[in-house]
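User: I'll paste a sequence; please echo it back and then give the predicted structure.

Assistant: Echoing your sequence first, then the prediction.
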Amino acid sequence: MRKSGRIDFTRRQVLAGGAAAALAMPFVNARAQSPIALKFGTVEPQNDNPPFNADDWFCNEVTKRSNGALTVTHFPAGQIGAQRDLVEGLKLGTVDIVGASSALISSYVPMMSIFDLPYVFSEKAKLFAFLDGPDGQALRTERMGEAGLRGLAFYDVGVRDIFNNKKSVKTIDDLAGLKIRVEENPVRVGTFQALGTQATPMAFTEVYNGIQQGVIDGFENSPLVYVSNKFNEVAKFASKTGHFITPAVRLMSTAGWDKLPAELQALVDTVIAEAAAMEREQWVTAEQKIWADIATMGVTVDEVEKEGFIAAVKPFVEEQSAKLDKDWVAKVMQAAG
């Protein structure tokens, strides 16, 4: 359980955490003869950013509330592997809890791919209202369970934009031929092929050097990720395309989950839900000023003619949606409004 990482919580959050602790503590056998130790692997950098802060808080809080019956040690910044390595590690038992993108998890749970299609959700509030509802809960437990996974919570990862080191991108034509890093996922690859780029799958941990060495021209991600990972040092053009609004997931394997006593399962569910709420709130606060910060970093920030981007990907969205369960697609599209 790592002590680093700063979190500023409201009085309401602290009181809510205290109330939850009072409810959870009676169910935890603090005198367990064999304390359980879990490893939590993520790729977010070890600095003041919402996912790292929330994950670090979760690890410390679970240990505290269980009186040491359950300890969770946080390994951020890809210390024990890239995202795909971490998810595979769940199945191998080399790691117990991981953070992963929806794009990666859709390789195991195809229903998740709907959230990686471009311009499906235009508001984060609608996305999380759906994911926090009964359909989102069934996705975390039942659907992920079919793949041997147990979703714990959905995190905010912001609105995704395009960053590159070559030129301003204001129209769909400006993207033509740029080598843009995407996650190792067919929907992400297909989206950026539809946008006219040379879509280049690459692990997140390789992106900075990839741009620096000219292997790629740029990448797509949220502006907060852009800043927290210091990509402004190597990619000086930012385009506000807003093409993806997707969640990230914190998850375990079903085998690992089933090994936890019921009272510790309940504690983990309670604390990770609080961590997710904190993470989302911090992300919203950070987003409110992030573009102003970027403008002071010597970066060219461009608005885009979004209609051209939406039109370019429309056939791809229709093609991919047709591969998924019709009722599921209808539910998501209705929620997206």
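The domain at 11-336 is CATH 3.40.190.170 (D-Maltodextrin-Binding Protein; domain 2). The chain has one domain: 11-336.
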